[in-house]
Amino acid sequence: MAAHGGHPATSLGLDMRKLGMWTFIGSESIFFGTLIANFFRWRGSSEGGLGPEDLDINLTGAGAFVLLMSSLTMVLALAAMRSGRMKQYRLWIASTAALGIVFIGMQAFEFTSFGLEGLGMSSSLFGGAFFALTGFHGLHVVVGVIWLISLLIFGVGRDIKPGEQVAGDHHSFISAEICGLFWHFVDLAWVFIFTLIYLLPSI
Amino acid sequence: MSVESTAHSTPESEGTGHAHPNYVGIAIFLFVVTVLEIVITFQSFSLGFMTASLIILMFLKAAGVALYYMHLRYDSRVFSYLMVGGAMVSTGVILAVAALNNFLPGQ
Amino acid sequence: MTQTLPVAQTWKSDVWSWITTVDHKRIAKLYLFAAVAFFAIAGTESMIMRTQLATPDGTLIDGSLYNQLFTMHGVSMIFIAIMPLNAGFFNLLVPLHIGARDVAFPRLNALSFWMFLFGAIFLNLSFFTGAPDGGWFAYPPLTGKEFSPGTGMEHWILGLAVLGTSSIISSLNFAVTIFNLRAPGMKMTRMPVFTWMTLVTSFLILFAFPPFTVASVLLLTDRIVGTGFFNPVAGGDPVLWQHLFWFMGHPEVYVLILPPMGIVSEVLPTFARKPLFGYTAVVFSGISIGFMGFAVWAHHMFAVGLGPIANGVFTAITMLIAIPTGVKVLNWSATLFRASIKITTPMLFAVSFVALFTIGGLSGMMHAASPVDMQHTDTYFIVAHLHYVLFGGSIFGILAGIYYWWPKLTGRLLNERLGKIHWFLAFLGFNITFGPMHILGNDGMPRRVYTYISGQGWDTWNLVATGGAYLMALSFLLFAFIVLKGLRGEKSAGDDPWDGATLEWATTSPPAVHNFDSMPVVGSNRPVWDGKYGGSPAPMDPAAAESDIHMPKASYWPIFVALGLAFAAAGVIYSYPMSAVGVVMIFYGTFAWTQESTVGPPARPSGSGAGH
Lengths: 203, 107, 612
Hints:
The structure holds 3 protein chains of 3 kinds. Chain A has helices spanning 16-42, 57-82, 86-116, 125-153, 171-199. Chain A is mainly alpha-helical. In chain A, α2 (57-82) runs antiparallel to α3. Chain A is elongated, with a radius of gyration of 19 Å. In chain B, α1 (23-41) packs antiparallel against α2. Helices cover 64% and strands 0% of the residues of chain B. Chain B is mainly alpha-helical. Helix content of chain C is 65%, strand content 1%. Chain C contains 18 helices and 2 strands. Chain C has helices at residues 11-19, 24-53, 63-98, 106-129, 152-180, 193-224, 238-272, 279-292, 308-320, 322-336, 345-368, 370-376, 380-410, 416-442, 459-485, 527-533, 557-573, 576-595; strands at residues 549-552, 599-603. In chain C, α2 runs parallel beside α4 (106-129), α3 (63-98) runs antiparallel to α4 (106-129) and α3 packs parallel to α13. Chain C starts with 10 loop residues before the first helix and ends in a 9-residue tail after the last strand. The chains are: A mainly alpha, B mainly alpha, C mainly alpha. Chains in contact: A-B, A-C, B-C. The interface between A and B is large, with 61 and 58 residues.
């Protein structure tokens, strides 16, 4: 977050913002863990309404692929920036954001169809726990998409000349990299959510 | 930190000395594992076996994303400790809530 | 924030410089000042309660107001008094202790403060519309919509959400700072104990708060959207709330005590004129207390009916925490053994910290045993225990810190003679107030009762306790006088008034905006002491003074984003459009923040620090 001239002193030789992002990720993973714990507490309480067996694995499986693909496009974006291929970098970032929007669309569709079938936040404890978990995950995806788009709008990396070899600690690279870390974290959360919430209750 | 002073060591450039992983290869791996997970879900093996395999596959995917996409394999150990620390507490919460609800009388 | 003030300095530009500051030393002052104000409010809440309880059948206030008072007293003392007091010390000391010029993310640091301030104000605004009255721990179903129909609980939930976010961000900042901004030679094993405790505290907050965030969101949806997570009528589970709350609640008490333990670990050696006995053991004890603190939360739930296995496990682990705690107490005591002790006010508070905290720890060990807790829980015995550790412990430790570091912060010493009188009144008043509560608790007086009928054997001790409380109030009035006096007068304390050992004493009092003229070089965990008496070179070499130092630029985006978050939270109660405005402010402010340049004008290194 700080734009500065020379390299600051760092006792561990690590970038400040990267260290900050990883610390945040460590903390936020507990937030999701608690939401998952809460889901497990209530997954049996469908109270006659829709329950875990009614979750659409095909749709969310597709969503899982979409997010995994978006993580791929994200690392390809960073790889492109490393070798100064800025046009490809921007393309990959845009693709990541686009895939994120597709995922959100899929979630919105899933939530709406559940709503139409009577499953809401307050219709049952299962519903509440389900929407709390997936809702917060979706919120994180939205924040990620906004972040990705702002990388493009604010022109992160515009200081990089085409073909320039970019060091791993280049300021703009780190800016993109920490956005990537957040994005991968969101994908990582879905890896757990998909298996634990969608697949396990259906076996 | 905007200290422009040279009286100390500069940080190492990150990620310069290692080979980049095959990102597309990792993506294919993740894709395959996900397919495997979905396939297993629809089988009728024993509950224990399916639960165990799904959880193992889940961790495999997580490792793929964390180690390669998030670069933990090539970055400083400090980042890994932060991730693992959070993951341990997270797992602890999940297990504790599950276990303590089994201790509740009449539950 | 610049060293050279503009010629025409108005009060407006001075206020603006405080609003936009990103300097950790100024932020320290802001935290300390605000925390003291909220401490005074919370203290007044307790004085009203004690006055009500002085005699049986008290008629000063009714039960409803009493419930609001004990709820707000607890929430305030924990979240907007002790935690920000600790944060004030983190801010003042951590960069100085490790030889840095500021924290890792200065604007984020300012953001944490403003979020704290607005969250604290928002919480206290609840008094106008009905403060939360379900206890500081807010157990449902009492705190669900049915039994707490007003907006008090929303103030609690949203206020703590803002405050919790502030703490998490601050912890992230200090963790990164401590890991990554240490001066050459300042290995982790050479850091002052206080900085180690800051690191452990930061991770406690980072890892313990998220489950509470989840729980409070779920309580909010229970109240506003109609989910039933904690509502037994809807099939929900009130005990789940307790688990999630105390999973945070117990590490929280270590968040409250570890920094004062760090303070005491700095003060005692200075006035014993010898190093802390067993530095490594003290540091490792702090770390293990941090780890173990995550595993004992259900000792707050012994009476809930978790069953003998759970109760037994939590009893055992709780008792194990006595070991690292005892290690610390023994090491502090050993530091004093055969020492040439200088009795100053900070020393008095620090030594009495050890004694009073130990008493509180002993009573705690009693009800660590779940069968004993069946007798103690929800009685005044617990009130006695918690005040011995949090007041005799944390507050006394913090007072030691204030007296000790006041000269570093302001360049002036606090009056020694008056300080010793303050200590005496505080020590006496404290013990007279909370000592008898052990007896009251054992005699069966429950907590959280707004009055009691005569003839149960409680009358005398309640009166005594109230007397002690008034004596404590008097001591705080004296303290206020001492502090106000300590804000005036010549800045004559000098760099190192106590003959200290750690890096903060190597620079001016107050420090210049850039802290150190040159990067300190560190060879031990007592760099300044060794430089004076140990034959090592002094950590600061005047010849190496740097000339091109740029400090981070002041910024108004932190307060802007903090205000946005405050509106977003408050709007949930007052008006949803307000929330929308708040969210827009957060996004806009964040974007502007990332695009802003942070390199400030050059700060001239100077021998005579022109700090503020």
